[in-house]
Amino acid sequence: MRILAFPASVVWVAAGCCAISQHAETRDCLPQYSHAALETLAINQFSIGDAEADALALALSDCLGESDPFLRDDIGYTGFARLLRSEKVSAETIKKLNRKLQVQLTTQDDDGFQQPFASLALAEIVRADRIGNIFSDAERTAIVTTATDYVRQVIDYRGFSDEEGWRHGVAHGADLLMQLVLNPHINDTDIPALVDAALSQVGANHSHAYVFGEPRRLARPVLFAMQREVMSDDDWAERFSALTEPDGQSWDNAYGSESSLARLHNTRAFMLSIYASIAESEQPVFESLRPIVRAALASLP
Predict the structure, then answer these.
(1) pLDDT, average across residues 293-297
(2) Are 191 and 198 in contact (CB under 8 A)?
(3) pTM of model > 0.85
(4) Which of 3, 78, 165, 297 could form a disulfide with 271 if both were Cys (CB 3.0 to 4.6 A apart)?
(5) Average pLDDT over residues 185-190
(6) Buried/exposed 15-50: b ≥16 CB within 10 Å, e otherwise
(7) For the domain with range 8-298, which CATH number is right: 1.10.10, 1.20.120, 1.25.10, 2.30.130?
């Protein structure tokens, strides 16, 4: 499979905040560590012995729903990702984490942090499987179902706030879809469902215009799906035509509707991200797709 070159952020997807905050020592996340010890752990990039990796990875997954951005992002997700990428976590523990994270991803929490960060952590699990061939076909199919169901149902469009850090459910869900598409062990027949899940949040009929880079993140799994070459040009033309179809007879009507304006903004930003990535590419796979994308983009005002 030919892979389009992307910035390092495609390979290392971090949630993005990261000033260390002060908070009370009473907490559910890693209570055995003092705040100073957690700071040291982060500064040392979670460098620990092999024998400790499994237990720490499981403990870090309990931090993904924390309201404190230091615990959730700098410690929970960042530590989890570093441990997974160090390849110190055993296959048995990765399977346990897969089951645990899928439960977290399907369980809503009042603050809205757990699901987006469980999605990011599950993306790391899928990446580990891509490298280590850990799961069975049935386990991979279950992840695809959980991931696509999650992305389709996201209705919390909060991104970043100075006080609370990131939620970013749409973008984090897109990162999970991307890792699934990149995984060669994922069945080719699952690729259209992953693409459709991404597109569902581009053309969603809501009044929220994305401002935290969501269209670019949603474009990534779609671009990598193009490179798997399991969907025909007609498949892509049908999807992009449906995506750029106006709500009424003409996109002119969008300027009198808040939800239609948001959809137009989000769709245009997504299609521009797709076109910018393939316009100058020398990969043969994009030659026949370029006019399809260009036509879809040209249909938007």
Answers:
(1) 97
(2) no
(3) yes
(4) 297
(5) 98
(6) bbbeeeeeeeeebebbeebebeebeebbeeebebee
(7) 1.25.10
